[in-house]
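Quick start: read one record
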Amino acid sequence: MKKLLSKMIIISGTLLLVSCGTLKQQSVNISAKEKSVEATAQSTDSGTYTILNSAYTNSDRNSHIVIKYPTLQGKGFEQSNKLIENHIRKYISEMYGSDYSDLDLTLDYNISFQNQSIISIVFKGLGNVKTAAHPNHNFFTLNIDVKNGNQIKLFDIYTISDNFKKIYFEAAKKQNPDMVSIVEDLRTVDLHSTERKFKLADSFDAVQSYLKPDGLGLSMPVAFALGNHFETVIPYNKITPYLKSKKSIDMPPGN
């Protein structure tokens, strides 16, 4: 009787352990499923691909990095997704060094424009190295030709002539009234630096370009005291003469 009772206790204990382990695994699976459902619910369908929310995280070298980014769900978009992920890693290493440490970086994204052939992604947030005097207001963009997974830069779309830049400066002063003197300095006093920022457009420390339904967005880097950057949107009809070609990519209808 005692042996039978002991066996029953052992069997009951084993079943309880197995039961607890199964419940724990189910709980994990449910959480993962809920996260997937939440991300899908926030997706935007362009007709050929769906946007799924993803995140790059890294806690190496006493750092806390979280960068949210879109993943294109659909057949044939592997190259575009690889470009996005590499672009994020490249941004971290170029802006903070490949041997960064004590970095607190949190960035989110929004899609400023998308159609069946092109997508414009804007990343922004705060970055702070613990030994630095102040944080940075981060802003960078990525335009992708989703047909081949290649990055599209400002110079791929427009001819950046003196007249193009004149239109930009006029729009920048109107849209950023608190920055009029700064914009004027960029046009005259800091002309050499400004020329470089346009020449190297879409490098991380230069002008950043992005498409919107109503115009071309340009982000100009400035000093921390001025906010690190400011944005200007030029209506497409103002710069149509400088458009290189509409045939290579499916530009917004305003072009």
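Confidence is low (pLDDT under 50) at residues 1-45.
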